[in-house]
Amino acid sequence: MFESESRPCNILIVDDIATNIQVLGNILRNEGYVLSFATSGLQALEMVENDLFDLILLDVMMPGMDGFEVCKALKALPNVLDVPIIFLTAKTEAEGVIEGFKLGAVDYVMKPFNAEELIARVRTHVELKAARDMVEKRNVELSRKNQELERLNRKLALALSEVRTLRGILPICSNCKKIRLKDSDPLKQESWILLEKYLTEHTEAQLTHGMCPQCIKKLYPEFSGVD
What we know:
Layout: E1 10-14, H1 18-29, E2 34-38, H2 41-50, E3 55-59, H3 67-75, E4 85-90, H4 97-103, E5 107-111, H5 115-162, E6 179-180, E7 192-193, H6 195-202, H7 213-219
Parallel strand pairs: 1-2, 1-3, 3-4, 4-5
Antiparallel strand pairs: 6-7
């Protein structure tokens, strides 16, 4: 038997006849399912508001609300929309089950119940629902991870946009050491700017000022011999 990742499969049996409930209970309890019971459509609607079910076995002929009315009401509830409903029906009621399929039921089981058939149908639909739930859970998780990846990509793109690097060949004057701006006219003086200004505007480097020994000796000869 397939079980959900966090809890055993929970089945709701809706039938106004105690004998049917007892027979169904004996068969399914031996398969390890957790069972709940309702003897009317109104009671079933109240129960689904307070509990989560993996499958609902629903009798067609019941006083008050019949199975079709109950099925329609159940499928109008968001928390029951994806819960499979199997009709319990007598042979004389089988033709009406087509109407039940239109209302959202997925299958039907004939009375009197055949244990092997009942177990097979129940197991099939329980496992299908569990598989759908798992896919939905994985999709939600994948969507969350995709959103996180998009956030990180935006953060990375922003970081990269703030990083400026120098690449390629930089034209530099051999005399004054000014650098020519990219794609500018080399014959125009405004196309050439000081190296310091160029580095400040085109890189993330922070410049500090000092003086090399050769320049100190040239500009301040009186200090050139001082340690």
